[in-house]
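Take a look at the protein record below and flag anything odd:
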Amino acid sequence: MNSSFNAKNSGIEHAQLKRAFLFRKNKEAYKLVFREWNPLLHFHLNNVGIHDDEILNMFDFFQEAEDVKEKIVKPEDIDFGVSDLTYQRDEEHNRVIVFKDKLIIARVNCFGKDISDDMRVQSVELFDGFANLYRVDFYDSRGFKSMVQWYTPDNKIATETWYTPSGRPVVEDYYRPNAQGKMDKSGWKTVDAKGTVRQYDTIDGVLLEFLNAANHKYLRKTKPNIFIMDRSDLYEELLPELREPAYTVLHLHNSHAGDAQKPHTSIMNNNYEYSLTDANRYDAIISATHKQTEDVKHRFDPKAAMFTIPVGVIPDKHFDEPRVPMKDRKFGSVIATARIAPEKQLDKVIRAAGIARKTVPEVTVDLYGYVDHSNDDIAMKRINEAIKDYHMEDAVHIHSYVNNVSIVQKNAQIYGLASVMEGFNLAMMEAQSEGDVGITYDVNYGPNELVVNNENGYIVDYGDYKKMGQYMTDLFTNPDQLQKMSDKAYELSERYSETNVWKDWKALLDDANKTWKHKMAVWNPDIEKGLEKLD
């Protein structure tokens, strides 16, 4: 259960994909559940191998658009209700402007080359006879009008309506002035095929209706519906309110403590504070590492079943691939594949490499990931300062986000990590599976379990980038030790093979099936008898 899925995603989305493919391989039915409306959702998920029947989006569900045959809608396909139109291409903004004589009728915006090379319609801005914008029609990438925004005379959004592919309105929200006079969402409603209207103050009401309907649709007496919250802040209050039984799971993708180095005493991570406070309302809790599982038990003593299931999964066939020896890689190469964000502290990895470079001048650092510009670009400022301090202008290379990181991992020798906190760190796991030697801060959770100290890498005290630099120097000046640790990195990666991770998931599935028998035995379904013929 997540919010959305886009072209560039975080570790949570990558973890979900790995889980999805593992479930598919083991013939365990699943759906990736999303709350947010996203006209490119199916496009992005199809691109990474997820099928339409494995996607369950809240808006799709109400719009009866879970399985839609794709068609391409181009600007000239739109019916504006008038004839003899002129179409003017605006290449700079990737749109077409439509005129009737000299009067603007519409601006048709296209998805562009990110989705295809054709001029596929993304949205249509419609203007009245006085050239005022009064409506915008948004199209799903699969080729149907999905949502319409209606505007006020002073150019503010007043209403948004979502439609089925056949054009029937099913979901609507309203904007009204709030206490400060700002237009804000003030209510939602849904309309089903029978014409039943349900009204809600917030999107949470719509979401609970969706969850109840989905749970009912797939409810079986012999096997539970298992709801796994990967982004608990969207679902944590609602799952315990389901009308019919389900097996509910809180998945911890990050440290439960705000200060990961003080897991028993620090203020809680606000993403999990509500969930863990109410953890006994769920059936199970998943942590990605054994250490976090024990820390959660120690701090909260939850009655929910606790499971340790790595979020990373390495295909079994990967272990049959030939290994790349260190001598065939770029000598002195240090990499990190992560968001360039303050909490990743990539400047510390650069400083460590700078120390090693004083002895080994061939040392380079390659960073792969999109830049987080928050807090006045503090992450890049710190990186640039580290580069300047160690005169590494020609040795540090920052690359954009890449999907196929295995190519660069196969050519690297050391993977450096200096995060403030982690939930697991898929990137390090993947790098180790390609034979990269890990050097990491002793940080919760994941890095200090992925790296087995003195075997497949080194763990240094949190904040000690000088020691990290010393280890880099030692490895680059001792090729036998570097190769030995690379061999061990390959071997220890088998902890995260499909076979081993599936065993962990099977333990949860078995518990769900066991719990299900009890839930069904005590469940009293809603009244149905006597409601068929009301006078």
Observations:
- The longest strand covers residues 169-177.
- The chain has a mean pLDDT of 95.
